[in-house]
Write a structure and sequence with these properties.
This protein folds into two domains: 4-146, Jelly Rolls (Sandwich), CATH 2.60.120; 157-264, Homeodomain-like (Arc Repressor Mutant, subunit A, Orthogonal Bundle). It has ten helices and ten strands. It has helices at residues 4-12, 113-132, 141-146, 157-168, 176-182, 187-198, 202-212, 224-230, 236-247, 251-256, and strands spanning 17-20, 24-30, 41-46, 53-57, 63-65, 67-70, 76-79, 84-91, 108-109, 262-264. The strands form two sheets. The chain has a seven-stranded mixed sheet, covered by helices on one side. The radius of gyration is 18 Å and the shape is globular.
């Protein structure tokens, strides 16, 4: 169950906060009435109160627990009675699934009460730090939530170079043939090696990074068309369709639900 400190913090403010980094996201905010979502990173949902969250995978039966784990690219739906949900997102190219803590190697509800409380306490700590010093005072992400750095995967240096290029500018076109040439690989060899190393096609990886970059714009006073162009989509129609496929929400709903969200980069 949540500690008295964390309950007090939630009563004292609405507790909404997002901490964004290139390979990690912590989100404490509204979940919304989502349809199925399919994120490109390893997702963890934690109840802010200790009460149950509900989840179903790929249209299956609903399950419940205070902590839910969803591997990357698994279609799922989450529901909660509480206004807020705590959500951690780990980019798939930044963690080795085989060396994650055992409870994170599952899909669905997990029994990890100590971890769930650590996430709730971490949320309280971030709220306090944000009010005093902002993100400059934030601790190391993995240390805060997991107690130690999560082991990264061993990737081919050429594939890592392309991943770093896309992460640096997700809105850039970054066509596969140019990426292949930049690292000295043939087009076909690059596509094969990329999927072999990351477990996902280059096209799907790039599409996820573009959709993820929306998170950097949720606190900006810009039109949907402007955000679509800034995140690399050709028009608002493609933007809306892609975002709904990934997050299970329309872009307009994501922005509306983020109006009171404090975003720390």
């Amino acid at each position: 169950m949540a500690t008295r400190q964390s309950k007090t913090a939630l009563r004292g403010s609405d507790g909404r906060l997002m901490w964004l980094g290139p390979t990690r996201v912590f989100y404490a905010g509204l979940l919304g009435a989502t349809s199925h979502r399919s994120l490109g990173g390893h997702g963890i949902y934690v109840s802010p109160t200790g009460g149950p969250l509900r989840m179903r995978v790929a249209g299956g039966a609903w399950q419940s627990g205070e902590s839910l784990v969803v591997p990357a690219r698994v279609s799922h739906q989450v529901a909660t009675e509480h206004p807020l949900v705590l959500n951690l997102l780990l980019e798939s190219e930044s963690v080795d699934p085989a060396r994650l803590p055992s409870f994170l190697r599952h899909c669905g509800p997990v029994e990890a009460p100590a971890f769930a409380q650590r996430v709730r306490d971490g949320h309280v700590q971030l709220l306090a730090l944000a009010s005093r010093a902002g993100p400059a005072g934030f601790p190391d992400f993995d240390e805060l939530f997991f107690g130690a750095a999560l082991p990264p995967p061993l990737l081919d240096a050429r594939i890592r170079e392309v991943i770093d290029r896309i992460n640096a500018d997700p809105a850039a076109p970054s066509p596969a043939d140019e990426c292949a040439a930049a690292v000295g690989l043939s087009f076909s060899r690059f596509l094969h090696l990329f999927k072999q190393q990351t477990g996902v096609t280059f096209r799907a990886f790039r599409a996820w990074k573009r959709a993820r970059s929306l998170l950097y714009h949720v606190d900006q006073a810009a039109s949907l068309t402007d955000i679509a162009l800034d995140t690399g989509y050709p028009d608002s129609t493609h933007f809306s369709h892609s975002i709904r496929q990934v997050y299970g929400l329309r872009p307009s709903d994501i922005l509306a639900g983020s109006r009171r969200l404090a975003v720390h980069r």
